[in-house]
Amino acid sequence: METTKKRISRTKLLTRLLILAFGLIVGRLFQLQIIDNQKYLALADAEQMRRFEIPARRGLIYAMDGKTPTKLVMNETIYTVFADPQIIKAADRDKLVEVLRQTIGGDLRNDFEALLDKKETRYQILATKVNRKQAELIKKEEFSGIGFQETSQRVYPEGKLAAQVLGFVNSEGGQYGVEGSLDKDLSGKNGLLKTVTDVSGVPLTIGNRDIDTPAEDGKNIVLSIDRNIQAQTEKILKNRLEKSGAKEGSVLVMDPQTGKIMAMANFPTYNPAEFFKVQDAAAFNNRTATAPYENGSVI
């Protein structure tokens, strides 16, 4: 009888302990999921959420071709090709090297083959300024461990035409000319994408917590300059300087009826796409607007 009572007491004690343990578990779950929900959600977001900047497209610059605007400055998409050596398959390596050489050629880094073998790193830049056609040919092969970063660069289809009027763009933004003076208008405003990513930092398409602020593209600028008058003025200026032996000169052409500037020519000049080759920064100045002159020399 006494043994039976002891068994009942032990059973009751065990039951109470189980109920207590279950209650503690439920209480802890309640605290984690209800009371501290926002705290741990914020911690999870800090680990999983990433911010990605959405670059704004820079505005274009136009001159006039008679009564029709024509592009003097455009944007071109270029790519940086990079590799994750840990993912590249050994069986694909030789073909990868061959495709990269045939497609990109001299724009590859000299040590790109050695970079493919650096397994201790996961990001190696193989080439920069790869054009869209080259990038598509490489993407077509679907190599594991090869990625592309898209960026934009300025293109000047008319070469040196109106170089000092246009200016150029470097890593710090627009410099000189219209590119510099109207940099804020041309630049636009970058957007923001805040989204959940996987362990590799790749954005996931699932979930509804994405915060997407669209980019505001830059404004297009239309100049009063006429490309044909500009080209002819630059040609005449260069010829006259060569005949006279003068080292530099500038010409401004204005419509006397409206006051519109039709041409602003300077010599020596440069190619805005190759501004980094200029040795004397004075070549960047638009002398028609900045250089002092004697009043009597105006014709």
* Shape, principal axes of CA atoms: elongated
Helix fraction, binned, reads: 25-40%
Q: H/E series, N to C?
A: HHEEEHHEHEHEEHHEEEHEEH
Provide the CATH top-level class of the domain at 224-297: Alpha Beta
Radius of gyration: 33 Å
Distance between the termini: 130 Å
Proportion of residues in β-strands: 25-35%
CATH topology of the domain at 224-297: Beta-Lactamase
Annotation, overall tally of beta strands: 12
Low-confidence stretches: none
* Integer average pLDDT: 84
Largest sheet: 5 strands, mixed
* CATH architecture grouping of the domain at 224-297: 2-Layer Sandwich
Total of DSSP H or I helical runs spanning 4+ residues: 10
SS-based structural class? alpha+beta
Descriptive report:
With 299 residues, this protein is α+β, with helices and mostly antiparallel strands. The chain has a domain at 224-297: Beta-Lactamase (2-Layer Sandwich). 35% of the residues lie in helices and 26% in strands. It has 10 helices and 12 strands. It has helices at 2-35, 37-48, 93-103, 112-116, 132-139, 163-166, 177-181, 183-187, 227-244, 287-290, and strands spanning 49-54, 61-65, 68-83, 124-131, 146-155, 168-170, 173-175, 191-196, 211-213, 221-226, 249-254, 261-267. Strand 6 (168-170) and strand 7 (173-175) form a beta hairpin. It is elongated and about 125 Å long.
What would you say about this model in short?
This protein has helices at residues 2-35, 37-48, 93-103, 112-116, 132-139, 163-166, 177-181, 183-187, 227-244, 287-290; strands at 49-54, 61-65, 68-83, 124-131, 146-155, 168-170, 173-175, 191-196, 211-213, 221-226, 249-254, 261-267. The protein is an alpha+beta fold and 299 residues long.
